[in-house]
Amino acid sequence: MPTRTPHDWTLRPALPEDVEAIAELRAVVMRPDLERLGRYDEDRVRQRLRDSYSPEHTSIVEAAGAFAGCVALRPAADDRWLEHFYLSPALQGHGIGSAVLRTLLARADAERVPVRLNVLRGSAARRLYERHGFALEREDPVDVFLVREPAP
Length: 152
Description:
Order of helices and strands: EHHEEEHEHEE
Strand content: 25-35%
Distance between the termini: 41 Å
Structural class: alpha+beta
Strand order of the largest sheet: 1-2-3-4-5-7-6
Number of helices: 4
């Protein structure tokens, strides 16, 4: 029987009961950037996820059969918003985030729609997105807004 590695991952549709696991992962993953910006609040970071959670647009990342993260691709007027993309810190840097992102961008390309997102200023995640074709759209004192046009 082959051994599973952290590189074995799948996406499954999110369920309403996934909300607390996602809220907890969000708190862990976002804490360093939010603290750096002086905006970390351990209750608010979780509640903001609960308040905006839409399982119908969210996928759960599973690695080696276990919860490893999540991502949402929410339809908007003429584009899609990539939101709540969190991956367990133990699995970051192994290519899973890039693989998940490629999968979602292929869906958007098939629909011929741009994808938008925002990241916190100074977040290392910005480099991941830029490697996948996202470009600066605008920024404010806290957030950087990026957009990626559909691939030809």
